[in-house]
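Hi all, long-time lurker, first post. I run a small reading group and we've been trying to get comfortable going from sequence to structure in the token notation. Rather than ask abstract questions, I figured I'd post a concrete chain and ask someone more experienced to write out its structure so we can walk through it together at our next meeting. Sequence below, copied exactly:
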Amino acid sequence: MAATQDLRPIDRYYDETWHDYRWLWLNSSNYAIHFGYWDERTHTHADALNHLNAALAARVGIPRGARILDAGCGVGGSAIWLARTFDVQVIGITPVSSQVERARGFGVERGVSDRVRFAKEDYLHTSFPDASFDVVWAVESICHAADKAAFYREARRLLRPGGRLGIVEYLRTARPLPDRGEALLHSWLSSWAIPDIATAAEHREWATASGFDEIALIDITPQVRPSLARLHRMASVAWPAALMLRALKVRSITQHGNVRGARDQFRAHRSGLWFDAMLTATAI
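-- Answer (accepted) --
Happy to help. Here is the structure in token form:
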């Protein structure tokens, strides 16, 4: 059983940075707060956000009529996309109350409130019965869990035998990294309310131990890199103003950290400290 994690830093981060995401990242076609996926079909930032969902869905294989849990759903971007794209029922969960309310509103706006439900829950300790879902979906959300092994155990409990797990996640390239590397990595992570990120080997080990097989992990950094660079450019342009606004106490420590983290994530990437990965697996 996983220890109960203090989720208040995550709640505070997403509450205080909502306007950053709303005006600089989200768009009318997808309420995603994750990075985008660039391929030969991608022409715009909006395309990239949708294509990350499409790339993961293609690897998972979404069966018609599936029941899907979006674990760490944010304001409903992936859940709404899944409901609109496939004939599925989706439950999105997040520990952030304001995200639940926004996701519900966006679901109504997009005409999928009959197929999507949102609730405030911790994805390490959900209220759902065993074998409730055909797919567990988690895009850039496991990073917020202090005990990531517990996520795999709970995902396996929730999946029916043969059910599919689909994850997009930041992975560190080594444990430990050199001291300067760890410092840079955690400058980014702590700014975004992320306790730590794990290695590919650790994710595979946790998935296997929890009762998954057919575990496939691929590096999608080449496809995601344009999105990483876009965020870094925006943060770099905003940095002088961010320093001034923080000095004037117009923006909070959390809001200031969000800009610093956007710069540090790319610096850490260029230093080879982390990569972006897509992991899929099947419940035994």
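A couple of things your group might point at:
The longest strand covers residues 159-172.
The radius of gyration is 18 Å.
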